[in-house]
Amino acid sequence: MTNKRKTLLSGVKPTGKPHIGNYFGAMKQFVDLQGDYGRTLIFIADYHALNNVQNREEMNNNIYEIALDYLAIGLDPKNVTIFKQSDIPQHSELAVILNSITTMSYLMRAHAYKDAQARNKEISVGTFDYPMLMAADILMYDADVVPVGQDQKQHIEITRDIAEKFNRIFGETFKIPEPLILENVATVPGTDGKKMSKSYNNTIGLFAEDEEIEKAVMSIVTDSKAPGDTKDPEKDNIFALHKLFSKEQLSDLEKRYKEGGISYKESKEILIENIKKIIKPLREKRKELEKDKEYVLDILREGGDEMRARAEKKMQEVRDKIGTKLYE
Ligand code: ADP
Ligand code: TRP
């Protein structure tokens, strides 16, 4: 089957400003792949975010901001349907149905839940049930391919399991989706070398101003090798980001690292220039889009209307299969 007959679907939670880890790990794939698939569906997972964002203004703002982000990185509404999850109540309905065929012990094995538990956090039922809503997001539209970062792989596996289970119990209904994870960007490191994450305060913002980029790069943690020492590029946090931003100079940089021909300071300066070159046009496009809020909201509104109709069609089938549908 060519990709033209397949559906690509993915989403991001509106929990704050995206960083370059989100971009390279997930969002850039949305842009690069748009147009390759018969349908590309990119949504805003606002009910997933509700587990963390519990403030009206903040939620409102975050949703709008992520819609701007999507458009600024180059998602083209001609190729992609952009919508928000909460505009399609059928997602929640399907999650309730999937809950009924899922056991607590199965969900307790999910990494996200175990991590939250390890941090001794008060865990909301919504967080515990997060994978079921995510499965509903994906299965609703018969998605074939789901581009995500490495940390979401288990959620896609759970989605596959639950789809198979439903199909076994009620008959063939859902397509089994595949994750799409690019190995070289599976985990983008932050300025401290750990996974870049909003939760760790180690991010470089995707739409950062030049000064923010300088500050973040200058704070990248390195070992204490002197400028003339030989350095192992594979162990350096600056070099890890060169792999994303300095592709053309990469072999030269690698050589200089190994020969002891570059200081970390110079390496950081080169990185700063290269990051600026990539971020500046994105930032400028975003500023342009900010001037027309109604345009952005209209895209969400239209996407929501279109997907609600599709979702309702799928749910009619689901309700029929489970036996709750008695009449048209
Ligand atoms: P965060 O960890 O910053 O809160 P999210 O959980 O909102 O990020 O992730 C949104 C998307 O970005 C997911 O598909 C996730 O896999 C991807 N992602 C997040 N951080 C990284 C990273 N450091 N490297 C690669 N992909 C990432
Ligand atoms: N869980 C994803 C994240 O943390 C967001 C998400 C929700 C998602 N539903 C989805 C991603 C469906 C892909 C498909 O980023």
Uncertain spans? none
Fraction in helix: 40-55%
Roughly what is the average pLDDT, rounded to an integer? 96
Q: What's the arrangement of strands in the largest beta sheet? A: 1-2-3
The largest pleated sheet is described as:
3 strands, parallel
Radius of gyration: 22 Å
CATH topology of the largest domain: Rossmann fold
Query: In the CATH hierarchy, what is the architecture of the largest domain at level 2?
Result: 3-Layer(aba) Sandwich
The count of DSSP E runs of length 2 or more, i.e. the number of strands, is 5
Structural class: mainly alpha
| Integer count of domains | 2
Question: Quick one: CATH superfamily of the largest domain?
Answer: HUPs
Bound molecules: adenosine-5'-diphosphate, tryptophan
End-to-end C-alpha gap: 34 Å
How much of the polypeptide forms β-strand, as a percent range? 5-15%
What spatial form do the alpha-carbon principal axes imply?
Answer: globular
Number of helices: 14
Pattern of helices and strands: EHEHHEHHHHHEHEHHHHH
CATH class call of the largest domain: Alpha Beta
Could you walk me through the main structural features you see in this protein, from its secondary elements to its overall organization?
By secondary structure, this protein is mainly alpha-helical. The protein is about 55% helix and about 5% strand. It contains 14 helices and five strands. It folds into two domains: about 5-185 and about 290-320, Rossmann fold; about 205-285, Tyrosyl-Transfer RNA Synthetase. It has helices at about 20-35, 45-50, 55-70, 90-100, 105, 110-120, 125-130, 130-140, 155-170, 210-220, 235-245, 250-260, 265-290, 295-320, and strands at about 5-10, 40-45, 80-85, 145, 180. Helix 11 packs across helix 13. Bound molecules: adenosine-5'-diphosphate (ADP) and tryptophan (TRP). Adenosine-5'-diphosphate binds near residues 22, 198 and 199.
